[in-house]
Amino acid sequence: MAVAELTESVLQLTLNEGTDPTSGEDILKQKRFNNVKPEATAEQLFQIAHAFASVQQHDLYAITRRDASDIYDEEA
Questions:
Q1: pLDDT of res. 49
Q2: Which pLDDT value is given to residue 74?
Q3: Going by DSSP bridges, is the β-strand pair 26-33/2-19 parallel, antiparallel, or unpaired?
Q4: b vs e for 46-73, b when ≥16 Cβ sit within 10 Å of the residue's Cβ?
Q5: What is the C-alpha to C-alpha distance for residues 6 and 19, in angstroms, rounded to an integer?
Q6: Residue 43's pLDDT is what?
Q7: Contact by Cβ (8 Å): 53, 15
Q8: Whole-angstrom Cα distance, residue 34 to residue 45?
Q9: In terms of DSSP H, where are the helices of 1-76?
């Protein structure tokens, strides 16, 4: 039977740095925070992201959690 084991979790904030004057599209930049505790809840990460965003020069555009897992055969 296959099993997935969480190996890494990253919190990513996407910030809107303004609008490109030529194309009119948003200029987005990411800030990543590694080593997020696997047991951290979505609510906790949401609150932390907004706390970090409050000390940033640019507006918060999106919050993303990226998890990576190793998948292996439990019986092996």
A1: 96
A2: 83
A3: antiparallel
A4: eebbeebbeeeebeeeebeeeeeeeeee
A5: 37
A6: 97
A7: yes
A8: 12
A9: 42-53
What mean pLDDT comes out for the span 48-71?
95
pLDDT band at 75 (very low <50, low <70, confident <90, very high): confident
Angle CA 26–31–32, to nearest 5:
140
| Cβ atoms within 10 Å of 9's Cβ, excluding its own | 19
**Cβ–Cβ contacts within 10 Å for residue 16, how many?**
14
Amino acid at 35: N
Q: CA angle 33-35-38, nearest 5°?
A: 115
What tokens were used for 5? 């084991």
Mean pLDDT, range 5-16, rounded to an integer: 94
Specify the pLDDT at position 76: 65
